[in-house]
Amino acid sequence: MLIEWLLCAVALVLGAGLLVIRERYASALMVAVAVTAFAGAAATASARRPAPPEPIAQGGEGFVTSNACRSCHPAQYSSWHRSFHRSMTQRAELSAVAAPDLRQGGRLHLETNGRSCELFARAGELWARLPDPGVTAAAPAATYEASFRAAPMRDVRVQLLTGSHHHQAFWVAGARPGELVAVPVVYWIDQGRLIARRDAFLNPPDAPERAVRWNSNCVQCHAVAGAPEHDATLDAFATSAAELGIACEACHGRGEEHVRAMQNPLARYRAHGRAARELAIVNPSELAPARGAEVCGRCHSYFYPKDEEQWWRHGFAQSFAPGQELSHAQLLLSPEVLAAPGSPQLDAAGESLFYRDGTIRVGGREYNGLVRSPCFERGHGTKQLSCTSCHSLHQSEPNDQLDPEKLANRACAQCHESVSQNLAAHTHHAPTSAGSLCYNCHMPHTSYALLGAIRSHRVDVPAFDARTRDKPNACNLCHLEQSEAWAAEHARAWYGSQPSLTLNRAAELAAPSVPAGAVFALAGDAAVRAITAAALGRHESANDAPALRAQLLQQLAHDDYAAVRSIAGRSLTGVSPAAATPPLDAALVSRLLAARDQHPVTIAE
Question: Average pLDDT over the chain, rounded to whole?
Answer without folding.
Answer: 88
